[in-house]
Amino acid sequence: xxxxxxxxxxxxxxxxxxxxxxxxxxxxxxxxxxxxxxxxxxxxxxxxxxxxxxxxxxx
Length: 59
What we know:
By secondary structure, this protein is of the alpha+beta class. The chain has one domain (about 1-55). Helix content is about 40%, strand content about 20%. The protein is elongated, with a radius of gyration of 14 Å.
């Protein structure tokens, strides 16, 4: 999956082999965005009532 390779390529030199072990071929993720969210790289908006907190990674 090309999107998986793109996301894995942005993680550095050591992280891609590790991410390849954990993610496999990436077929469980419909999009690169899903993979980024799983990895904790995608920003998450937390809201409660009228309060909206940050656009930062959830981890």
